[in-house]
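SAMPLE LOG
Freezer: B-3
Tube label: C17
Construct: single chain, 204 aa
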Amino acid sequence: MDERLIPTPRRLADVEIRSRELIGRGWGRLERLVFRHRRFDGAWSGDVTRDIYTIGEVAMVLPFDPALDAVLLIEQFRACGLVWGEATWLFEAVAGIIDVGETPPDVAAREAREEADCRIGIPIHISTVWSSPGGYGERSYLYAAPADLSDVGGLHGLAEEQEDIRAVVVPLADAHAATQDGRIVDAKTTLMIQWLILNKSRIR
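STRUCTURE (predicted):
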């Protein structure tokens, strides 16, 4: 193993939180943290101030039908583009927030049913990632799962959550092309499709 890619051993004792203040709360929470941390040379950093926004932990799943060599994606409006004056309806993998008492695979299966009326097999863990670690506290559990997608698609979502979701089944090759030509711009979904291109033989 290349020693350059072995993580530096660190513990919470290597971080000192000076203050932690809740500065906003709505769908998620916005906290201002002032902290210092151990530097690579062994000394302590100066005080660092960061605002961290957190909704929660998320499970995402990319259903794959080996017989069709196709994946299920969903399209919905996301508010992120409004910051930049853009209307962002995005293609993504199925996803949902993990509630207390749920496991990530539980959420993957629940959200596949809610967002696409899709039943998935046992999810295979791809990775657990930070969405945007500089200022976003969301941790995402990424999965691929076998599914029969022969009769999946259409409009779905929970009315009480104002969800308006279009489920589409597309060839894996087209989904991969879409990550390169700008039709798919969600980073986690792109990662999941690229993983599946390399590992689809594992999905039975």
